[in-house]
Specification:
With 110 residues, the chain is an alpha/beta fold. The protein has 4 helices and 4 strands; from the N terminus they run αβαβαβαβ. It is globular.
């Protein structure tokens, strides 16, 4: 697997706030279900900032998959995102039952 960890610095507070606002206004508020118990999966979740924005919006069932260990570790350790997996997104998806998630995003993969 290629190492992309050097492409993105560890996010600082200003960057995270800008991303939170962007994600909430562009994706979460207009498109996500009203049910805050919806199961949300972010493929290629990076540091977990999008999932943290979902949590700030009141969503509770958050999951992420990230290939870069450094980024997944940051999300788990610094953002307290418990359900971050480090690995290949296709392997992860094939291990899940159909209809396991209500929302699946891949914002930083596409």
């Amino acid at each position: 697997m290629a190492d992309y960890s050097h492409y993105y610095d560890i996010p600082d507070g200003k960057y995270k706030e800008n991303r939170y606002n962007h994600y909430f206004n562009r994706y979460i508020n207009p498109f996500f279900p009203a049910d805050k118990n919806a199961r949300i999966l972010d493929l290629g979740c990076g540091y977990g900032i999008f999932l943290d924005a979902c949590r700030r919006g009141g969503y509770k069932n958050l999951f992420g998959v990230e290939a870069e260990k450094k980024w997944a570790d940051y999300g788990r350790e610094k953002l307290d995102l418990e359900n971050l997996s480090c690995g290949d997104i296709f392997t992860f998806l094939s291990s899940q039952k159909d209809s396991s998630f209500d929302v699946i995003t891949a914002i930083n993969v596409m």
